[in-house]
């Protein structure tokens, strides 16, 4: 009898363990799989999003799965379908005879790779996912083509790129609002085979669409472009490599007015690359830049992409951090505006300073690899030299204008004459 009870207890324990194994297996199955090497489109985390959620959220059109199906974009879903229909009908009515099934087959064959591009599991069945990618991708292609080729545009288009350009540009650079560029390239090849006019390749049309960001007139290798946000990041990056630090880890830089009080002169550079910041004592050259409502959104999304995808190449993060150090007060902003470095399209200098101060909130900096470490070291060294501060103070307080200079020289002359008269009086 004792043996029977013991066997029963062992059997119950085994069943409990088996049940626990099943529960843990189910728990592990629900976890997100590790990120694929294809992953390049990320959901922005809560820490970044809570600082300014609207900077990562589309205004008029959702692209890809992260914002798909939101009721805010219901009207634009109809517009996207009309654009999709226009592109497909043009193909099926042409001599190339590229049917709708050809488009579906193209996306279906690449569905797994497309899913791997997103940072989280997409809870859509195959048909729903393929349909979404097909409509969104073809909408973008038709938008680009119809914007530059009037022969391919007709009155049935429900969207005027001229009217909605600002909003569409805003939405197409958002990190969460992307489809992989390789799928756009493939759909473009299918579609343009049937066009009755010769059109530029997709990379050329894309560069033209985002030309306002191509200050350096770059011609990037589109084989390495992940999506539109990635393209804009590539256009902003400097061509020069990072220089190694000469001293200890960089930690601090004085503000623009503090540097100015120490004798640093600010001058607008002629360079088109925002990272071409140089200090040739006592002149700090900074390429001009514009601060407007779209700057914040642009930089926040580029910063997010660098954090997630390029943690060792944080060029935009470093640039914004450098400006964050310089711009602490409205006086700092006014100083850069007066020297033609910053173009102010905001009404309040206080808002401008705070815009850069909060861009790096909840962003972990890598000061070991800071792009501007050398120029910052040189500026700090110049600031700490007592003679530089003395010369700057004298010039600011006594020789800043011709009238001040004349008054100072007159006072010095009177002082010298008085001293001479006093000496002669003592001698006599």
Summarize the structure.
By secondary structure, the chain is mainly alpha-helical. The protein contains 18 helices and 5 strands.
What does this structure look like?
- The chain has 18 helices and 5 strands.
- The protein has 428 residues and is mainly alpha-helical.
- A 3-stranded mixed sheet has the order 1-3-2. A two-stranded parallel ribbon has the order 4-5.
- β2 (278-280) and β3 (283-286) form a beta hairpin.
- α13 crosses α15.
- The chain is extended and about 120 Å long.
- Mean pLDDT is 83; it is low at 390-399.
- Arrangement of strands in the largest sheet: 1-3-2
Please state the average pLDDT score: 83
Instruction: Estimate percent helicity.
Output: 55-70%
Estimate the strand proportion.
Answer: under 5%
- Cα distance, first to last residue? 135 Å
Figure out the total of helices: 18
Largest sheet: number of strands, sense, barrel closure: 3 strands, mixed
Question: What sequence of helices (H) and strands (E) makes up the elements?
Answer: HHHHHHHHHHHEEEEHHHEHHHH
Q: Which spans have pLDDT < 50 for at least 5 consecutive residues?
A: 390-399
The 3D shape can be described as extended
What is the CA-atom radius of gyration, in angstroms?
Answer: 31 Å
| Helix-strand makeup class | mainly alpha
Number of strands: 5
